Amino acid sequence: MNIRTNILLRVYAAFGLIVLFAVAVVFRMGQVQLVQGGKYKAMADSLSTRYAEVEAARGNIYSADGSLLATSVPEYEIRMDLLAGGIEDDKVFYEKIDSLAYQLSVRFKDKSSREYSRLLRNARADKQRYFLIKRKVSYQDLKALKQFPIFNLGRYKGGMIAVQQNKRIFPFGDLAARTIGYYNENAGVAVGLEGAYGDYINGETGKRLVQRIAGGVWMPVNEDAEIAPKDGADIISTIDVNIQDLAQNALKKQLIKSEADFGTVVVMEVETGRVKAIANYTKAGEGYKESFNYAIAQSAEPGSTFKLASYMVAMEDKKFDLDDKIDTDEGKYKIYRHTIKDSHAGGYGVITMKRAFEVSSNVAIVKQIYNSYKDKPSAFTDKLYDLKLGDKLGLQIPGEGTPLIKTPKSRSWSGLTLPQMAYGYELKMTPMEILSLYNAVANDGKMIAPLFVQEIRRLGNTVEQFQPRVINSRVCSDRTLGMLKEMLEAVVEEGTGKRLKNPLYKIAGKTGTAQVADGSKGYRGKRKYQASFCGYFPAEKPKYSMIVVVQNPTKGSYYAADVAGPVFREVADVIYASDLQMYADVKEPKVIGNTRLPLVKAGSKKAAQEVYSSLGVKSYFASAKEMDVDTNSGIAYREVKTNNGIVPDVTGMGLRDALYALGNAGLNPVIKGSGEVELQSIPAGAKVMKGTKITIELR
């Protein structure tokens, strides 16, 4: 083979390989475009654009009187497209960027204008289209930003991008914080009303189309969401902000005084079970904060407050009556190797069972329960279960502790269990469960579940209402109920709760001072005590029940009357003083000394008539032109009606009323001085344009 032939063969081989490669490429291109085109197109789209969730505004939580306990307010993340249409021209951008930087610096006060200018210039040089300027910007700041240089060109020309987020705020701070609660989505933890009613409060998320840009950042394609989110429903709670504030302050004050570990207070309406206040404080460093809901979650040995259940069961079984006498054996009673003691040295001698309850004798109730049920302890424990004390209350908020009522079948049952249970040991209950029992006595024997939510609303319309739920329609007979009420009143009148006695109204309840186990050391370790008081008021016609629990008071007394009692008394006194419905019929007051008719100001005729009628004051109503009336036996009063564009007469009004009237008339008031309005710069009756300024002088 000559050289020419050899060269031609190599050329033909190379050309053939190139042709084969070209054919393979064309075949593959056709396969990708025609056969697999849809697949890869969808993949490309998913990598460049996608739908992101838009958070819905969570519903509000209100108190029973309509006060806002929790709400969501919008806050914004402000970003900027440095290549927006209105600033593509470098001349426009660099002419105004320093002005924008200055305004940002003045508004946010976090960077100098020079720093803002440098950051924005560098971002433009890097051709950033989603540059972060500021997080957590309020709506008021957002409105101001829209007027800034460059940004005032509009969304697409000025390049300002505002991404809305929702921030949860609590107008009353830590008021009922643990009951209002929260929902931690990352940890999956639901606490309080926020967690329990998350399905209602959270609403429905929307969808927004976002596009991935340089740096892997996802930027909204459109200003508005493609699928708008649906805001959450509102929760109307049973909490009364005034009672809640009162309970928290009284509890915290006592915890600080006693240097206790933690404490809780619950105030509940007797008839409805509506929880009006629930306060929980835990020692944290030098102060106290709400970090755990002890009222519903802390299952512990209640101590002497449980004696009410022991008396109820035994008297219902006719084991004894209040007048039956018992020997307290000098305050000591030995069972096996264990000695049960009374807190009073030397005991109380021979006393009636009523007196034993008043002074909280452990020996008396232990002897009665042990002697009555030792041969068949299940007769006692079965009755406790019949009272529903061994069941959870089924609360509307999560985290309820599980009660523990032992039976002879329990593994830990021993010869000491029955006598120990008689006065509140070797069993566990939460403060809320104890309160429900006392509330049942106050409610004529009907035990109802505590209510935290009374209504759910969406856009002002009722979605669901919650009525009192009966747990036990009759906890005992009328005979037993009458004796229990008599005993509970006697505790405050003549027994361990005498410090709570108030001459204006009667309180009924029971003290409880229990020794608390010291971890693994049990009762042999460092002595710790739990002081509690549970009861209701006014005793003759109960409206509220309440429990106070203070754990491990380390300073001063640890007895319930000295630690829990003052909290109960303070809260009850203020509630009674401020709730006119609890008073007996108010007689006509006797007036001593000189009196004068109340000072009146112009305003709403209908509202004034209602006030005067309630006060028994005669009133004369006249028009603005007719003020010549006889005022010897009453009050002359002029009604003010506001019309848009007509200046009202606000002379003689206080500032708040004047601002209201002028605002309704469409005027822009300028205020000078303080007190009552003496002069107004535009006379009454004049017709003015909306937004006209009017100066009012107050003295």
TrEMBL record:
Residues 641-699 form the PASTA domain. CDD domains: PASTA_Pbp2x-like_2. It is found in: Membrane. InterPro entries: Beta-lactam/transpept (IPR050515), Beta-lactam/transpept-like (IPR012338), PASTA_dom (IPR005543), PBP_dimer (IPR005311), PBP_dimer_sf (IPR036138), PCN-bd_Tpept (IPR001460). Keywords: Carboxypeptidase, Hydrolase, Membrane, Protease, Transmembrane, Transmembrane helix. The keyword Transmembrane helix applies. Coiled coil: none annotated. The chain crosses the membrane at residues 7-27. The keyword Protease applies. Its main location: membrane. Pfam families: PASTA, PBP_dimer, Transpeptidase. It comes from the Bacteria. This is Penicillin-binding protein. It comes from Pseudopedobacter beijingensis. The lineage of its organism: Bacteria, Pseudomonadati, Bacteroidota, Sphingobacteriia, Sphingobacteriales.
